[in-house]
Each structure stands twice: as structure tokens, then as C-alpha cells.
Amino acid sequence: MGDFSAEEVGRARALRRGVWPVALGGRVAALGLMLGLGLTAGGAGLVAAFGGGTWGGRVAGAAVSLVLLPEVLGLPFAARGRVVRRRFGLVTQGWGGWWADVLRGLLISLPLTFGALFAVYALAGATGHWWAWAALGAAALTVLMSWAAPMIFEPLFNRFTPMEPGPLRDALLALAARDGVTVEDVLVADASRRTTALNAYVSGFGRTRRIVVYDTLLTTAQPREVELVVAHELGHVVHRDVPRGTALGALGAAVGVCVLAAVVTWRPLLDLAGADDFADPRSAWLLAAVATVGGAVAGPLGCAVSRGVERRADRHALELTADPAEFIAMQRRLTVANIGDPDPPRALHLMFGTHPTPAERIAAARAWRPAAPQDTF
Fold first, then answer.
1. Nearest 10 degrees: CA dihedral of 202, 355, 147, 75?
2. Residue 377: its pLDDT value, please?
3. What's the CA gap between 258 and 255, in Å, rounded?
4. CB burial string 316-346: b at 16+ within 10 A, e below
5. Is 132 helix (H, G, I), strand (E, B) or coil?
6. Which among 339, 338, 344 has a CA at the least distance from the CA of 357?
7. What is the pLDDT of residue 359?
8. Does the pTM of the predicted model rise above 0.85?
9. Residue spans of the chain under pLDDT 50
């Protein structure tokens, strides 16, 4: 790790030691809550208490309890993690803004959860083949959310303004044109009101596609480094990673619903959960508990797939720019600014790492060589 000083590595590891126990504690607490209420009659009692005796009230009670209780349980862990990151200079947002973000998240998740539960339990009460329709609905919702995230949800949390005309904007548009990617605009996100972290991404589809650059990246990195970050993100577009990921996610959601249906209709589990039948919304905590366990089991596989996708985008950036030295400089700047660990513990990385480690990315850039030109006759 000669690319990073002992001080930089020590600082990153100190942040990891402060943040990861809190993050893992939050995950364990959330899983414990789900299992504790999903595999006992406690969850059914909560649904009935929140929603009363009617079917619609129970669906609403299930949605409210499933959203609010995990949120309340997770708040101390999230707040503690925020305190640690702020101590390291990564957080710029005040507590008022943080609470506003929490409220925005609830205003999004509550209607979505209610709608999903309403559809599932209405289908379960109407037909024995509810799982097939629910699987189709889960796949469709995955596709819809992939479109809605950049167009509807992103503007709720950040403000986006067009990048001022100038050499950098021209260079980014030229980079996209050279890559055969049509973008509508280059936007700047006001990330600095929340964090000092650096990032950029390509958002949207077709005519709505735009390059988005954090304002923190513009004020910290050199223009060529910004180009390298964007070149990586363009790699995701060229290789159709978002449509592929959306299709894979839709398929995974459909298969997941089928597996969930087989598990949550098992009589011994329903007895544990205090529900007479799955069609009773009092089984919602059992549904959530099984889904949470399934997500935890599938998580490392998803991370492994993500790391492969990110490696390919790195190679694309190198091929597009043919500038490994600046790629290495960019990786170093991002790692230092984001206080990332250049070489985190392997087990932790395999379980939760969605990108190759900075050390791996720098080593890959050093090993990269341009493709030999083809002979023509």
C-alpha cells in the first residue's frame, strides 16, 4: 500500500473501527427484531393493535408497524454512526437536515409498504395462485423503481443545477460522445450540504440521461480526475449495467417471492407467528422476517456480482482515456477524501464490499495495457 501514507491508512482504519461495529450492531438488532416478532405471536399482536379488527386496518397496521419499528430501532445506530463520521469530517449536515431526511424516507417507504402489502394480501385472499401474480408484480415494481429513483426520488434529497459552461463541461460531453453515449445535460448535485465525500454518476434513461457530479468532487479533484470518474460511470452505461441489473433484480424479485410463498405458507411457521392463514395480514411480520433472512443470505452473492461489474467499468475507463496514471491519482484522491480503507479485512470485504478495494483497483490500473492494434490488409 505504498500509494497511501501510514497516516492515511491509520485514519481510514480508525474510521472503520468506529463505524463498522455500530453498523453491524444495527444489522444484528434489525434481524433480531424481525425474528423476534416474525417467529412469535408478537408480530401478529402488533398488527392487530395498530390496525384494529378489520382486514384493511390490519394491512395498514402491518405497514405502519413494519416501517416505524425498524426505523425507531435503527435510529440510535444511525445517529451514532453519523457522530463518528462527523468526527472524521465526513458529515456537514446539521441534525435538523438529518431528521428531515429521515422524515422524507418515511413518507416514501410508508405508502410503498402499504401498497405492496395491500396487493399481496388482496391476492392471497382471492386466489391460491397469489404467489404467481405477486411475483409478476414484484418484477414490475423493480423495473418501475429503477426508473423512478433518478426521476422522482433523487430530487427529493438533492438539488441539481446545470454545470456552468466551460472546459470541464465540454470535456465531459466530449467523453460521452466519444463513448457513443447520449446525455441530456451535465448536472451538479449539492452533496456538500450533507457530506465531504466525492462521487459522480450517470443517471436516467434515454433522453433523460444526465451526468451528475458532486459539487465536492468539483472543488477537490483535478479536472482530469473528474473525467476519469465520469469515464468509469459511462462504462456502466455502455455495458448496460443498469438495464441488466434491473432485469436481474426483477428476476431475483420474482424468484424471491416464489421462495417466500413456499416458506411463509408452511403451517408450523404460521403457528409460530400466531396467524391462522397467510392471507391474514397478521402474518406480515413473518413475511418480513423471512424476506430479511433471505436478503442477508443473498447479500454476499450480490456484492460479488457488483464487484465484477465495477471491475469492468474500471477497465472501460482505462480503455476510454488510456490514462492509467491519472486513474491511479483519481483512485487515491477518492480513497483519501472518503477516508476509505485501501485494503480492508477480507471477510468484511467479501460480505459487504460492492467495489474492488482501492488497492485492487490501483493494482489493476498498473497492470493495464492498451490493446494491440489489429493488422489490416
1. -120
2. 44
3. 5
4. bbbebbebbebbbbbbbbbbbbbbbbbebee
5. helix
6. 344
7. 95
8. yes
9. 375-377
